[in-house]
Amino acid sequence: MGAALALVSALSYGLSDVVGGIVARRMRAVHVAFLGQLGGLLAVAVAAPLLTPAPPTLPDLLWGGLSGLGTGLAMAFLFRGMGRGAMSVVVPVSAVGGVALPVLVGATVLGERPTWPTWLGVGLALPALWLVSRAGGPARGGATPGAVADGLVSGVGIAIQYLALARAGPASGLWPVLAGRVTALAAVGLLACTLMRAAGTDGERRAGAREAVAAGGAGVLAAVALGAYLGAAQSEFVTVAVVLSSLYPLVPAVIGVAVLGERLSRGQVLGLVVALAAAVLIALS
Q: Gene Ontology terms, cellular component aspect (predicted)?
């Protein structure tokens, strides 16, 4: 059940990325992120008391709030790296770091001991995520120390998001996710204000209500992903839940080819095949 929830999380996150990416063609990416966090917050605020009538405990809310701060940290440094023109470096470093650190913590701190097929799947998933996340062609800025550092810090933020949320109690329901959306919204709002002051109003892309609603919908999908991950982490090893949930880059890649007519590089195709093999190994272990 835990592995299935983690795969649902990956699917929801991947669909969120697809919707958010399409909207970002008409709206600043940081505004898409802010409206997404707002949409996720509103959705979870409605769902949490309905699905979990019992009031949350303070530790569960604090773990959820810390998870949201990790989300904000990840977005801040991801956007900074992408702003430097180093997307092909920052995105894969962030994706792999966000998986590797929770796996390391799970094995060394939490004492998790998955089976050897699971470890084999984890070992395959890390290079697969790197390959799938790599943008085709060189990026302006390249693999500079600053770009790598932005990717690493973003990966730390993703790791905090996953590890903190996994510490919430089994009876917490969606309350930790709600607390995380509050702190993430505050962090992304601060980021949006900072970038707006830095960039001014020149070149601002105008977007209407339809784009705003779509951005909010992307946030709702991301909130569903976090809720599914929370359920997975409460019934599975964190190592398993994080790795399977982090396979979400496969979804935009597949939809890009099947629906949007995009072309993948040979490395991305190889990454897709290896990632699917890794998912099968982990899910069936």
A: membrane
